[in-house]
Amino acid sequence: MPPPVTGYATGDGADRIRDLRPGPGGTTPLGRAAAPGEAATMTRPVTRPVSCSAAGRPDPDDGGCDVLLRDGGIARIRPLLPSDREALHALVDRSSERSAYLRFFTGGRATAHGYMDRITGPRHPGRALVALMRDRLVGVAEYLPDPERPEAEVGILLDDEVHGHGLGTLLLEHLALDAAERGVEELVAVVLPGNGPMLRVLADLGLPATRRSEPGEIEVRIAPLRDGRLLEEVERRTHEAERNSLAHVLTPASVAVVGASRDPTRVGHRILRALVDGGFPGPIHPVNPYAAEVAGLPAHPGLGAVPGPVDLAVVAVPPAAVLGVAQDCARHGVRALVVVSSGPSGQAPLAEAGNGDSARELLRICREAGMRLVGPGSLGVVNTTASLHAAVLPVRPPAGHLGLMSQPGAAGVALVERARLLGLGVSSFVSVGDKADVSGNDLLEWWEDDPETRVVALCLESFGNPRRFARIARRISAKKPVIVVAGADALAPAAPPHNAGPTAPGPATRSHSAGTAAPGPAGCSDAAAVGALSPAEPAARPRAAAATPDVALDALLRGAGVIREDDARDLLDTARLLALQPPPAGHRVAIVGNSAGAQATIAGACERRGLLVPELSPATQRALRARLRPGAAVANPVDLTAGGDAGEYRAALEAVLADPCVDAVLAVYAPPSGSGLDATRDAVAAAASGSPVTVLACVMGHDGLIGDSVPAYAFPEQAVHALSRAVEYASRRAAPPLCDAAPPGLDARAAREIVDRDLTAHPGGRWLDVPIAAALLSCYGVRVTPSAAAGGPDAAAEPAAEAGAVEMIVGGVAHDAFGPLITTGPAGSGVVTDRAFRVPPIDRAEAVRMIGELRCRAILFGRSGRPRVCVEALEDQIVRVGRLMDDLPEIAELALDPVVVTPVGAVATGARVRLAPAAPPPSPYRRRLR
Questions:
Q1: Are residues 661 and 766 in the same domain?
Q2: Does 554 map to a domain?
Q3: What is the pTM of this model?
Q4: Span 130-145, pLDDT tens digits
C-alpha cells in the first residue's frame, strides 16, 4: 500500500486540500471498506445524470473552457483524461519539497506519484479537473463522493510557478459547481493549521463554510450553494480579471506594430504615425523585415529582434500572414493583439487556402498563449488618458468622457468623427471588428471603474452572451449610463432553436401588421396586431409568442437599465447630455427662449414624452418680470421675445435655475435676433456654470457645444429626445437595486421533478395536460382555479363574474438567445399590442414598471369610474412566472390567459404550458471566456 495521502495547502507550495486517502485494508477516503475491484459511488440519488465514463471520470467529449486568471492571464480548465498521466507525474516532479509536504503531508514524492496513477486509472470513482497554461498541465483538482452521505472530499495541486494568479480559486469554483450538479451537498477539506493562504481561499470562495480544529489539521466543510453571495464573489473576481487582462490592450507599457509599412497610405504606417503623433509614452516598435527605419523609429525584422517585452502588438499584415504573426507573438510573450487585418470583401475573415476557419485558429493560438485578441477586422484602439492612439482614424479624437465601442468599422469612424465635431471627447474607443475574443461584455467591465468614462456607448451587430451582457450592464448602469445601438437581428440565434417542439393545433399567425381589435376586457382595447389566434384555438399559445425580435431586444435592454437608441445620431445626442451635464432630478422642465413658435413645439414634444412643463413659482415669475422687458411671458415657457438680448437671457436663466420646482432648463435661441449668436451662447454658458440643474440648449440650425458643458441641438425634437432619455435614466438609477430573492412558497425541487418526469415520458416535449400544468404552476405559488386545474369548461366564468374584475394575461416564451421573455397585458380574443415585456430576473419593482407601461393601467388603478383591483397580486404573478421560467429552461411556452384580477386578489382561470428539451443556460456562477 502507498503511504496515506493527507494534505491540502497553499503557501510556498501548491494550493491543496487533503487528498482522498486510502485507509487500512483499502478503505475509501471517507471510511467505507471497498471490496476488491469495487469503485466507490454515491448511494444518494442525484438530481442530474452524472456525465462520467464507466470508470467514473468525466466524459472526455467535454473539452472544457478557457478562463481568465486574476492577473489577466488565460488558462484552460477541462476534465481529467487518462492520457494526462504523464503530465501529472511531471507536475509532481516540478513541485518543491515544501509543496509535496503541504499537499501530501509527506516530503517524499512516491505517495504523490501513486496518487496520480490512481486518479488516472480505469476504475477511480472521483471526478477531477485539470488546468492548462500554454499547453502545459499546471493544476489538478478532484472530489470523491462519500458512498454513504451526500458529501465528498476534495483535493487540489498546483504548479509552484502559478501561485498568486487565482487558479486554485477557479478550480475550486468549477469543482464545487460540478459537485452541486451531481447532488453533493457538502465538500470536506482538511488543511494544515499553518496554511493561512489556503484557509483564506476557502473562506473567500463565497460559499458557506464551517471550520473544526483537530490535532494537526483543520477540517473545513463547504456547502456548494449557488446563491447571491457566491454570485457576488464570482462577479467581483471576474471584474478584477477582466480589467487586468484589458490593461494590456488599453494601457500597454509598450507597443509593436507588425506590418509597419514605409508607405504613408498603408494601414500599418498610419497606425504607427498615430502612436507617435499621439505622444504614446512607452516604447514603440515598428516591425518590418524590409526597412531599417519607419516614421523615424528603428525598425525590427521580427518580434524576436525587439528589445524588451511587448505588451500590445498591432497586426497589420496581409490576411494570409496573420496566423504566423500570432504564433510569433505567442513565442515571444506578447500579452495582447489588435488584428486590423481581415479577409477580402465578401469572404470569411482571414480565410486562406487549406484553412476555412482561420479566425477560430487565431483565437486558439491567442488563448493557448494567454493573449487577449481584439478583432480580427478591427480599426484599432484609443485610450486618450494613456495617450494611446493605435487606430485607423482620419483625425485623432480629443480627450473626453465617452467610452465608445463599435463592432462595424465604418460606424466607429463616423461616431468618433461626429462626436469630435459636437465637442464630445472620448475616454477610450475600441473597434472590435469580428470580436473573436474581446467583446462589449469585456469592455463594460473595463469602463465600470474608469474614472474618465462617464457614459458608455456601444454600437453592436450581435451579442455573444446576451444574459451575461444584461447582468453586467444592470450593474454598471447603476453607476453610469450605458447606451446601445443594435438592430433586432443582433439576437439572431447561431443555431436552430433549442426549444423546438410541438405547438398548439392550428395556425398561429405572427404578423406585425396593423389590424382591428375587438375591445378587450374591462374596456381595454388593442389597436394593432403583433399576433393573432384563430377562433378554433383560444388560449392555445401565449401572446408572448407573438413578440417580434425587436421587442425581445428592447425587453432585454430595458430590464438591464440600458438606454437603447435607434441610430448613431440619437446615441450621440443622448450621450453628450449625460456626459456633460448632471442627471435631471425629475421630469419638470423650464423653457427659456426668444421664439414662441419653437418654444411651443418644444412644450408639445415634452408632453408627448412624459415631461412636465409646469408654471413657474410666483417668486420666480416676479423676479422675471423685474428683469425682462415688458411683454415677455414669464409663466413657462419664458418668452423673451425676438428682441431679448444676451443680458436678458442670462438673467432669465439664472432666475429659472434658482426655482426649486425646476429639474431641467432648455434654452431656445432662433438666430438672428437679440445680441447675436455668440453673445447669447456666452450668456447661456455663464448662467449654467456650476448649476446642479440640468441645462441644455436648442440653437436652431446649430449643433455643438456651448462653453465646455452645455450641449446644443439644432432642432427641438433632438433636444427633447435627449432630455427625456436622461430623465428616464435618472429615474431608473434612483430606484432600488434589483432584488433577486426568491418569492416565498416556492418548491423548486417538486417543479423540477414534474418537468423531468414528463419529459422522460414524452422526450420530444408537449403541451401539458391542464392538471399537470396547474400542479407545476402551484409549485411556484401561481394560483389556478380548481375547475381550471381540472379542465372544467366553465373555469373562466367563475371569478370573472365578480364585480370590478379585470382580465389580464401573464405569460412567456423561451427565446433562443437569452432564455425566457415574460409578458403581461390585457386579455382578449382579438389581436394584441398593449403588452409589456421583460427578461428575468424580474423583481416586484420591475413588475410595477411593466404594468406602468400598459395603456390599460388606468383601469387597474380604479379610474374611469371602476374600483381599484389588487394590482399587487398581478405583480406577484409576474414575478413568480418569471422565476419559474428562469429556473426551468424546458418551459418553452407558458400562458395564464386570463388572469382575473379582482379587488382582493388574482387567479388564473386558464393555464397552458409547453415543455420541450432544452440545454441548461450558461451558469452565471461558472467563470469562463466565451
A1: no
A2: no
A3: 0.87
A4: 999 999 999 999 999 9
